[in-house]
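<given_protein>
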Amino acid sequence: MDDRNRQIPPLLCDWASGMELARPQAGETYVLRVDLDPRPECDNLEQLLQWSVLSEAERARASRFVRPRDGRRFAVCRGSLRLILGQLTNASPQAVAFRFSPGGKPELAGPWPPGDPPLVRFNVTHSDDLALIAVSLDRELGVDLERLRTISEAARIVESYFTSAEQAQFAALEEPVSASAFLRGWTRKEAILKAKGVGLAGLATSYETMFGTTELTDKFSPAAPLPRIGEWWLWEASPREGYFAALAVHEVSRSGPNCLPADSPPQDLWLHGKQGST
């Protein structure tokens, strides 16, 4: 098999500010687990370790949350993303800037021509006190995370956004299996749609992912019964007890001329990009 297209199981690992992160190699995907509730809890946003790397717009957004906990979690998640991307691109975290694809998917901004791949692909998801940040140098990806809970409108959502085969599978499930299966089916859909940078409307039924009922561990494994959906490989894990995550990774390497070697000097490429929200 062409090395560009070989599938390597994603690596799930913990991330904390100050950690050194090795750059992924070709075909590798890291999924970094970020605890959004610092211990001990910090009520003053300015005392957060991540606060200093946020942009002014991000600080203002964090301060606008009605519940302090939500603002704190946003700041920790966005600051961690900047720290991670700064390491992988040899840029200062404050210099990292974002742009959006035509479909609204956040990506690194830079001075390279439109259509050229960014230096690092990334995607972010969070649920309650946990966030996952997925990164790759050469493959488009999308990640989604949900905490286990009962969704009262699950049946209506399945009817609206899932295929007839998926609806039949879900109808045959009973509680408590159906509650977890629904969330796993939802994360699968979301992971693919986030990887493509598109929304649910009119597209969710284009990708038949089915509902997961097999046992998960904290290591990513191929989604069953359909580990490959079109051009996407689908992986699943339980990154923490009571949480489900799905990761969609494109089958083909899309590396371009902008990839930096590991010994590259610090860059300021992203100072020219438009700051945005992810």
In short: Residues 256-278 have pLDDT under 50 and may be disordered. Residues 41 and 69 are 9 Å apart (CA to CA). The chain has two domains: 3-139, 144-250. The domain at 144-250 is CATH 3.90.470.20 (Ribosomal Protein L22; Chain A).
